């Protein structure tokens, strides 16, 4: 199968973050995926929308079948992220489009590690320590 490109090397920060978070972290570049695998990813509403927000050439409406409105696409992406149990989204290169997409699909900023942003589903976030102490 032909690959779509080799991509750049992985940033060592990503491995450190995985250790600090205490969970495995998938690291990869879509340019390293075979075309059929990339097509399968684009069929997932959440990933198709994220790729579109990142400026990938395939639009969300081309990637999703059946949903034609922006609201419908976002609802499908939100539901898809929950179904797949997406627990983390790492933002290496922040853009208003990506941040808006994450907010609309139910993700919130959990923490920063330098310039890297870590988003989690809003329901999974713990309240700030001051709020926990006041409630306890």
Structure description:
- The structure is a single chain.
- This protein is an alpha+beta fold and 136 residues long.
- It has helices at 12-21, 35-42, 45-53, 60-63, 70-83, 96-104, 129-135, and strands at residues 89-91, 107-113, 116-121.
- The chain has a 3-stranded antiparallel β-sheet with strand order 1-3-2, covered by helices on one side.
- A hairpin with a 2-residue loop joins strand 2 (107-113) and strand 3.
- Helix 3 crosses helix 5.
- Residues 1-6 and 58-68 have low confidence and may be disordered.
State the order of secondary-structure elements, H for helix, E for strand: HHHHHEHEEH
Q: What average pLDDT do the residues reach?
A: 74
Largest sheet entry: 3 strands, antiparallel
Rg from C-alpha positions?
Answer: 16 Å
Percent helix range: 40-55%
**Tally of helical runs:** 7
- Give the spatial strand order of the biggest sheet: 1-3-2
Low-confidence segments: 1-6, 58-68
How many strands?
Answer: 3
Structural class: alpha+beta
């Amino acid at each position: 199968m032909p690959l779509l490109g080799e991509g750049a090397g992985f940033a060592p920060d990503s491995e450190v973050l995985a250790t600090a978070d205490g969970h495995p972290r998938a690291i990869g570049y879509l340019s390293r995926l075979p075309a059929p695998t990339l097509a399968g990813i684009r069929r997932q509403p959440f990933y198709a929308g994220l790729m579109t927000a990142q400026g990938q050439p395939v639009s969300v409406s081309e990637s999703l079948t059946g949903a034609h409105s922006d609201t419908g696409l976002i609802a499908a992406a939100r539901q898809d992220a929950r179904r797949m149990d997406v627990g983390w989204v790492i933002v290496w290169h922040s853009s208003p489009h990506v941040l808006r997409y994450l907010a609309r699909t139910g993700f919130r900023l959990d923490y920063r590690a330098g310039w890297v942003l870590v988003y989690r589903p809003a329901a999974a976030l713990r309240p700030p320590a001051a709020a926990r102490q006041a409630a306890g």
